[in-house]
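Anyone? Bumping this.
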Amino acid sequence: MSTKTKILDAAEVLFADKGFNGTSLREITSQAEVNLAAVNYHFGSKKELIKAVMSRYMNELSPRLESALHALCLEEVHPTLVEVFSAFLDPLLHLNSFKDNGTSTFLQLLGRGFTDNQGFLRWFLTTQYPGVFTNFTQAVQKAYPELSKEEMFWRLHFTMGTIVFTMSSSDALIDIAQNDFDRQVDIAGVIKQVIPYVAAGVAAPIIR
Amino acid sequence: MSTKTKILDAAEVLFADKGFNGTSLREITSQAEVNLAAVNYHFGSKKELIKAVMSRYMNELSPRLESALHALCLEEVHPTLVEVFSAFLDPLLHLNSFKDNGTSTFLQLLGRGFTDNQGFLRWFLTTQYPGVFTNFTQAVQKAYPELSKEEMFWRLHFTMGTIVFTMSSSDALIDIAQNDFDRQVDIAGVIKQVIPYVAAGVAAPIIR
DNA sequence: CGTTATTTTAAACAAGCGTTTGAATTAGGG
DNA sequence: CCCTAATTCAAACGCTTGTTTAAAATAACG
């Protein structure tokens, strides 16, 4: 395995677990069993490494996500919100065949990215992968046309918060759930729990 | 004003803005115009300072919140979920008379606390202020008795994610909203937008 | 006032950080 | 094989971090 890949593999796990600020290059390189200087040699800087970690996932996810949302809009004039959010399920779970625990890791990284580093990753994602956002808002627009642009803006951010926050601490939450309720839970189960929640949230009656 | 208060006032703003890990003691003490060593002298360590910042807010909030939820359960046998979440509004907004931008600052701190520091603040809050959680889950239980404990567990965490994530980046979101929609928005407006969302989310039909 | 306790101060500490350097090693193409 | 380019490596760089020290200044009190 190439040095670059070894670094990316080690970095994504540590980033997901302890955040970008909370993970040092020395932790990453010793976990990856490569020299400390390798990060700056292959990626230039820690910030570029963070982008590379996210890009590897986004390049895998975004085409599948865009085509899933696109297909839904073609085959149904009025998709339900549950259908819209369910369109995320397969592309997200595909990350598990792309990498072990890929879905969970990616969603945790996403959560970190929106809170660490005063949100530079939010900028990176919205500018580098705008297609995901536009396809998504279009699908929601078709599912719930009465929603104004402003209300949709807020509800989509609420939804992102729900997903991202839950997933960034999903390991701890799954542990608690397994102990308290004596039930086997995995990341797919959490996603299936969250879909009706966010669908109902976005579909909430408008109070004016 | 006492040195302790000057430190707390400076720390909470910086913590809310840049996170706990992202704020150094030197930033805090120079903002507060006190000596660097004052933090360790008055609080013992940075971690204890973080706890003190949170406690100052929690001690102001939690009795009002608990009594508001308690009162709601007394006066109504079957409160609606909107009523339950609306019970948070007054106690939260009261923080604005406690301190300038108190509501926004506190909610941002809460958001930071659940993602920074591998969630030690989650432990601190749940162990030091358990009454808030039990009162809240009891109120939700009365509003939606069909919900199993496990489903409630997840939906409450989804809700916390929605609130906490939104508020931790509320400044950025409010800026975007003001530019894109040419509307005056403040923290109370965001809270009023989020209440129907989370109420509908928690009330979502159960899929089994 | 004088003495004791409390608080403030400047300076230094050890440790960790991201990054850079230049030499050593490995790989590739003529 | 040889020369060149690419990669790895140990070491150090300069800087920031939280914390500690011991002296100086201030406050409290009999």
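Late reply, but here is one note on the structure posted above: Chain B touches chain A through 54 residues (CB under 8 Å).
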